[in-house]
Structure formats: C-alpha cells, structure tokens
C-alpha cells in the first residue's frame, strides 16, 4: 500500500495532487526550489524538501535531488504532475532502480510514445487510424518526395523527437519540400540531438480532440470521453471543454474505441491521453499520446464525476479496473488564466499579485496556487489559475464562465481574463464553429480605457 507520495512538481498541480492524497489518507512530500519556499504546496504537504535554486534545471529537473528527497523522507512513490520530468523515461527508470513507484506508465511505454514516429507506427499496427504518410522515418529528401507524390501536397514534415508542434514544417510543392525537409531535420537535430523526420499528408482545418484513457497495465483500459482543445495559440492551449461541440455519440464511440485499442497495444498503465486530428468529414487520425496527467484533466473530471489523480494512484498501487460504465453529465469548460498581457502578444507579466479574489458559487471550480501577496516567479510557466465551470449544457456553461470571469479579481499583473471574456462572446465560438486555426484569425478588441474619477 502506498503511504507517502512525493510530488515532483510545483504550482497548481502540486496542490491538486496533495488534495487527493490527503483525501485518500496518503502522506505527502513537497519538493521546492528556493523561489517556491513560500507556497501553498510547501505549507499543505506533510513534509517539504528544498531541492535547489530557482532554475528548473537546478531543481525540478534534478533527478538526483528528487530521488534523495524521496529517500530521506521515506516516500513510497513519486507523482510527477505535468511538464518537468513527467514524460522522462529515464527518470521513471531511476525511480524503479530505487524501489520508488513512478506514478505513470512504464518507462518502455513513455519511451515508445515519446518517439512520435514509433508512436504512430505502434498505433497504426494496433488498428488506430493515422494520417497517411511514410512508414516511419524518411532517410532523405528523395524518399520524402516519393511519399509526398504518392499522397499529394501539401504535406507535413515532423520530427520523430518533436511533438506539441515543435520541429514541424509544412511543404506546399516539390520545390518547397527540399527546403522544408532540410529546415525540419536541421532544427530537430539542433533542438533534440535527433534529426529524424517523417512525412504525412496535411490535414486541412483540423480540430484537436483528445480522448482521456485509464489503463491498469493488467489488460484493462477504459475511456472517459473527449476534450475539445482546438482553442490554442502557438501550440499553447487556452481553453478546453468537454464534451466537444463537434463530437456526436457515434464519433465519440469510434474515437473512444480507437483510443482504447491504442492504449491496449502498449498495455497502458495509468492515466493517458490519445490526441487526434479530426477533419471536417469527422475522419480522425492519431496525432500523439501523452503519458501524463494533463493540465486540462479537470474538464473530464467534472463531466464524468471522477478524480483522475485518485485513479492514477490506485493503479500505481496495483489496483485492477473493474466495470467500464461511465456516463457523461453536462458540459465543462476550463479557461487557463495566465500572467500574460493578451493585448501585447501574450507577453509574460510576472510580478506580485496585489489583490486576489477567485470566483465561487454553483458549478465553479478554481484550481490555483496563488493568493493576495503571492509573487509569480519568472522562472516557470505563466499559468496562475485554471477556472473550470460546469452546467447542464454548453450554452449555460458559457454563461456561467462569463459570470465567473466577471467575479475574478487579480490585481498587480496582466492576465488572460479579458481574452477569455471576448472569446466567450464570439459568435463563431458560441456556435461551436472553430478549428485549430481559429485564434490566428481572432481579433482581440483593444483594452477598455478606464478614466479615473
Ligand atoms: C498536423 C496538422 C495538419 N496535418 N499534421 C501540431 C501539434 C502537433 N502535435 C501536430 N500538429 C499538427 N499536425 C498534419 N498531418 C496540423 C497540426 C497543427 C495543430 C494540431 C493541433 C492543435 C493545434 C495545431 C495548430 C497548428 C497545426
């Protein structure tokens, strides 16, 4: 039985994991950098260990210090959260070497899904639809050109070591292909030390829709429906919702079945996400599998009435999944509140939060680590809160979110709140008529000028 968990993370997700642990009667250990000494995770955890200076490379990414912290506190398991070491197969290996349970899938699964070309081939072999293209990596421009000729332009050139939009180039014709191939592989070599690329047909106006799965590593996988994640800017999600306004019962069943087949093929253990591109004909294609809990897991929790962190822990403890029936209830939306200036290209706005009041009331959840007086360190990402609402349907959830955003007071730093308010008022957004290109064309109205007196 797991009795003590070390949380190898910070911010809202560290708090989120601590909450579930304490509900389950599990003791917690926070690790923190010197920049995070005065945080709620440090305060609420049963124990806390400083693991280094502010830079992530000297703290939250230091495997040796995290393992040492687990050993001195007698933790049984490590929850990696998202980001940092969450999808680092070597870290999962080191945990096992030290008899620590890594709360996540096996190192082999993490490694397989981390190589995007291997992941795609694994899924294709399991019967999951994938974007037509090369069988694995292409060796040179000539091979890339043959693949492009076979499937037709435009094509995408993607780095095997990439993911999340990094190391990805589009080519419109044979002449363009030569340049983009060299650019993609050079960029991938420089960024990841691995220049391998693969080629696939370009999917026009795709939506990003992902399926939440949970497997027990003992032959059972279930899915928790989809999340609509098309509202992104430069591959950063800003708003997510469940269910997707584009997905009907039949499409959900098909995508859910595909995600389960893919997860079963790697004997998946823990919570995972299968990301799909969905075109306007409702054809869908495997894109990537994330082997971690995700930022947006909360919208799934709200519509399925499930604690996904609890599922992660129980599975890490060896529990089997029994029965598969889960039903979706209502609609949930999550707005990511970042300390960024939406009127200045979303540039980071770190600093001290002078005033803070989070929205409350029926159907409102605010997952955050910040409070009045909190100083946002410049060393980490800029997300300071996740505002999640639920209601009976999408229209009501949008109204509730607008009400909640209106109640949200954050003084001292710029935030993405005004962006969300304008997005939620947009007619096309409200009609559910959007794809991954939506924000490229979205025009933010200038900020309101408030005249004193
Ligand atoms: C694509 C695509 C169109 N066609 N692949 C971007 C993130 C990475 N995981 C894959 N991505 C894309 N792959 C083909 N064959 C368009 C995108 C894409 C995208 C996907 C999801 C969410 C936002 C996106 C924004 C731009 C491009």
What does this structure look like?
By secondary structure, the chain is an alpha+beta fold. The protein folds into three domains: about 5-100, Rossmann fold (3-Layer(aba) Sandwich); about 130-200, ATP-grasp fold, A domain (Dna Ligase, domain 1, 2-Layer Sandwich); about 205-440, D-amino Acid Aminotransferase, Chain A, domain 1 (2-Layer Sandwich), CATH 3.30.470. It has helices at about 10-25, 40-45, 65-75, 90-95, 105-115, 115-125, 140-150, 175-190, 250-265, 295-305, 310-315, 395-405, 415-425, 425-430, 440, and strands at about 5, 25-35, 45-50, 75-80, 100, 155-165, 165-170, 195-200, 205-215, 220-235, 235-240, 270-280, 285-290, 330-340, 340, 345-350, 350, 355, 365-370, 375, 385-390, 410. The strands form six sheets. An eight-stranded antiparallel sheet has the order 13-12-9-10-11-14-21-19, sandwiched between helices. It has a five-stranded parallel sheet with strand order 3-2-1-4-5. Strand 1, helix 1 and strand 2 (about 25-35) form a beta-alpha-beta unit. Helix 4 runs antiparallel to helix 5 and helix 12 packs antiparallel against helix 13 (about 415-425). The longest helix is centred in the middle third of the chain and has 19 residues, at about 175-190. The radius of gyration is 22 Å and the shape is globular. The chain starts with a strand and ends in a 12-residue tail after the last helix. The mean pLDDT is about 95. The chain binds ligand MV4. Ligand MV4 binds near residues 131, 165, 208 and 232.
